[in-house]
Write a structure and sequence with these properties.
Layout: H1 3-24, H2 27-53, H3 68-101, E1 105-109, E2 115-118, H4 120-125, H5 137-140, H6 144-151, E3 159-162, E4 170-178, E5 182-189, H7 191-226, H8 232-241, H9 243-264, E6 272-274, H10 276-288, E7 297-301, E8 307-309, H11 311-327, E9 335-342, E10 345-352, H12 359-362, H13 374-379, H14 386-396, E11 402-406, E12 410-418
Parallel strand pairs: 7-9
Antiparallel strand pairs: 1-2, 1-5, 3-4, 4-5, 6-8, 9-10, 10-12, 11-12
This protein binds adenosine-5'-diphosphate.
Adenosine-5'-diphosphate (ADP) is lined by residues 324-325, 327-328, 352, 354-355, 357, 365, 370-372, 377, 382-388, 411.
Length: 427
């Protein structure tokens, strides 16, 4: 019943009661009856409103009628508030969903440092769980540096700290204060980054160290050569001596360039079948010149399988492994380079009967500049990069370097290659 309608009913009732009352002579009773009818009608409307108030979030039927008019305004206010809350909740949900795609741990703190919310990365990295929500972050991560970082009046530098759960893992925390109330903490794992930085520092230190020795020698020779007071024949004889340190520097620079190129460039992709027999023969001829002591080198080519890849790179593998076999074997000890079938493919192997390598060094031999006995190895003329080069080349040929060795009995360096469906015969 809307407002004008109820007004019309009221007036109609009044008029009807007055007419009937005047006609019948019972005007008072007639008006009284009309009032009762009016009250009954209003009572019915009131009951409807009362019923609606028990579920005020459903829109009132005939919202503008009678008593509903009273309830309609509060209903509209509730409804508006409800829409606003819905909007904020959905925006918050979007923010939390965004926090989930961030790979770093995101922790949102409330005004007294209690955890308000966190993403899955935080659960993984700092082993938080939903029960930690509401607890103070410093009571969970008790690292003193982290606690001081959290309590500092403002954030200056990121904090590096060791993970409370893994001594090997280095974490970095950054803090963003949102006004004076809230804070957002971002934590990320920087173990790999740190390792990379350390590797870079070590690399530069190693290169400088390797270059310093031949440079010092060259420097010493040059000083003598330009000293006019030194006998002429001595000064001339030093020219020849320059050759060795110069070669050493040259091979170091060559190896470094090759290694960088192997590490930074993708495999050429132009794989051609490599005639392993002639590749081994060429490598043998190349290392012949290096031999100061006579080692008997045997070439055994028993597999007809070819390797698909880059000839120059695979040649370098053979030369490096043969050079090492010669370098780390006493005079006269036999060395073999072989190419044999194995199940599913073929194996390239260099076997020596030399000094051998202790077990604990084996897994580090392919690291750049790693040498078992630094001073001993260096005096044998290596750069410490040979096996790193071999490792990278083999990786580009879908193979890996494997080593087995016994002290004073010798070593085997080998790599396996898979059978290819189509093998091309080599002329
Ligand atoms: P280097 O130029 O010093 O030979 P490599 O990377 O080729 O560097 O080899 C790393 C180290 O591995 C060598 O310094 C040496 O100590 C050890 N090594 C490599 N090959 C052999 C081998 N056949 N026998 C014994 N030790 C070896």
């Amino acid at each position: 019943m809307n407002h004008p309608q109820s007004k019309a009913i009221f007036i109609s009732l009044l008029v009807a009661a007055a007419v009937l009352g005047a006609a019948s002579g019972y005007l008072g009773w007639s008006l009284f009856l009309a009032a009762l009818i009016w009250i009954a009608l209003q009572n019915r409307e009131f009951k409807k409103v009362e019923k609606w108030t028990r579920r005020p979030l459903t829109p009132p039927k005939n919202g503008l009628e009678g008593w509903f008019r009273l309830a309609y305004e509060p209903y509209r206010l509730i409804q508006r508030e409800r829409e606003r809350t819905k909007g904020i909740t959905s925006r918050l949900r979007q923010i939390y969903e965004l926090a989930e795609v961030i790979p770093d741990a995101v922790i949102i703190l409330g005004s007294s440092g209690e955890i308000d919310n966190l993403n899955n990365a935080a659960k993984k990295l700092l082993r938080f769980n939903d029960r930690d929500i509401g607890l103070g972050i410093s009571t969970i991560v008790r690292n003193p540096d982290f606690v001081a970082f959290m309590n500092a009046p403002r954030f200056i530098d990121p904090l590096e700290f060791t993970s409370p759960f893994d001594q090997e893992q280095i974490l970095e925390a950054r803090r963003f204060d949102v006004g004076t109330e809230r804070k957002v903490i971002l934590v990320r794992d920087i173990t790999a980054l740190n390792r990379l930085l350390t590797m870079r520092q070590n690399f530069v230190a190693n290169v400088s160290h390797e270059l310093r020795t031949p440079l010092t020698v060259v420097n010493g020779y040059l000083e003598t050569m330009i000293d006019k007071e030194q006998p002429e024949d001595l000064r001339l004889s030093l020219i020849e001596k320059l050759d060795s340190p110069m070669r050493r520097m040259q091979s170091l620079v060559d190896d470094l360039l090759l290694l960088t190129q192997l590490e930074s460039s993708a495999p050429t992709g132009v794989d051609v079948p490599i005639d392993v027999s002639s590749m081994m023969q060429n490598a043998y001829l190349e290392v012949q010149g290096l031999q100061t002591s006579e080692n008997q080198i045997t070439i055994s080519c028993e597999s007809s399988m070819t390797i698909l890849g880059t000839h120059k790179e695979m040649h370098s593998v053979c030369v490096n492994l043969l050079t090492n076999a010669i370098r780390y074997s006493p005079a006269g000890k036999p060395i073999e380079i072989s190419w044999r079938d194995i199940s599913g493919g073929a194996r390239l192997q260099v076997t020596d009967n030399g000094y051998g390598i202790a077990e604990e060094h084996l897994h580090r031999l392919t690291e750049r500049f790693y040498r078992v006995d630094m001073s001993g190895s260096r005096s044998r003329g290596g750069t410490g990069l040979g096996l790193a080069i071999v490792k990278h080349i083999l990786r580009r040929h879908d193979s890996t370097l494997q080593i087995s060795s016994k002290m004073n009995r010798g070593s085997k360096f080998y790599c396996d290659f898979k059978h290819f469906a189509e093998t091309t015969s080599i002329r």
